[in-house]
Amino acid sequence: ECAELMGEIHQNAGVGKLTSVYRKYSISKYDCVAKLMNPLLQ
After folding, report:
1. What's the 3-state SS for 1-42?
2. How far apart are the first and last CA of the chain?
3. What is the mean pLDDT of each run of 10 residues along the chain (42 residues)?
4. Which residue spans adopt a coiled-coil conformation according to this UniProt entry (predicted)?
5. pLDDT for 42
6. What is the pTM assigned to this prediction?
7. Most buried residue, 12, 15, 22, 24, by most Cβ within 10 Å?
8. Residues 40, 8 contacting (CB under 8 angstroms)
C-alpha cells in the first residue's frame, strides 16, 4: 500500500504547480534522476 502510494507520487511528480524539484533533477547535471522509471510502476 505504501509502495503503491510512493509510486503514484513519483509518477505525478512532473505534473502540477510544484515542479521545481522535478525540473532541477531532470537536467544532465543531476544525471536526469527525476526521469528514471520507478520499478514499482512497471
Report:
1. CHHHHHHHHHHCCCCCCCCHHHHHCCCHHHCCHHHCCCHHHC
2. 16
3. 82 79 87 76 58
4. none
5. 57
6. 0.53
7. 22
8. no
| Matching residue, cell 500500500 | 1
CB-based contacts of 38: which residues, under 8 Å, 6+ apart?
A: 7, 10, 11
Cα–Cα distance measured from residue 2 to residue 18, given in angstroms and rounded to the nearest whole number: 22
- C-alpha cell of 36? 528514471
Q: Which residues contact 12 (CB under 8 A, 6 or more apart)?
A: none
